[in-house]
Write a structure and sequence with these properties.
Length: 199
């Protein structure tokens, strides 16, 4: 239990640092590098503590999914850091020149993550972590099943729309839709469930 509390403290400190650094403004690309490194550290901590975080045995397929998504996310962060360092303005941004590639990669990530999302075990660290999804396992399952269902249509629409509209607009609307729709639906489900239990 103490080990689990220490892990939570470490992850909380890293999260606060990431938020503070994310609001800093400067000319260089140092913030992106620091955020990437902090993200990787937190994911490595999650990977090493996966079994205690989700309360399942090491052999459980859900723990393997949890760990696999951690490694996959670390690879995405590294890819983003390399992309930012190779871009002419040394920033992680969507431009007219790279928008098809970036939106394409975002679409692939969404489809891949969405395919695995129903298999993510109930936890407070990886997945659609909203106040109501982390309080109730049934709400968690419904939210992540919906994330899975929406991933392919949203990713395909995003990729097609990137040929007609600004990459940042398409990317922002796509990601927000992917999060907001399951978030609202699961909130309504949770609210009705809690209301039904209190009567």
């Amino acid at each position: 239990m103490k080990k689990n509390n220490l892990t939570r403290i470490i992850l909380s400190i890293i999260s606060i640092l990431m938020i503070v650094i994310g609001f800093m403004k400067s000319e260089g690309n140092v913030e992106i590098l620091i955020l990437g490194i902090l993200g990787i550290i937190s994911l490595v901590v999650l990977d090493t503590q996966a079994t205690s975080m989700v309360g399942l045995s090491e052999d459980n397929p859900k723990v393997k999914t949890f760990k696999f998504l951690n490694i996959f996310t670390i690879a995405i962060i590294i890819l983003c850091l390399v992309f930012a360092s190779l871009s002419p303005n040394k920033q992680l941004s969507i431009t007219e020149e790279n928008k098809t590639l970036v939106i394409g990669l975002m679409s692939v990530f969404m489809m891949f993550f969405g395919n695995l999302s129903p298999k993510i075990p109930f936890n407070r660290y990886l997945g659609l972590r909203l106040p109501w999804t982390v309080r109730d396992e049934q709400t968690w399952k419904i939210a992540h099943r919906l994330v899975g269902y929406l991933s392919f249509p949203i990713a395909i629409i995003m990729f097609i729309m990137s040929f007609f509209f600004s990459g940042e607009t398409v990317g922002s609307i796509g990601i927000l839709s992917w999060i907001i729709i399951p978030g609202l639906y699961s909130f309504v489900f949770y609210y009705k469930k809690v209301k039904g239990l209190s009567q």
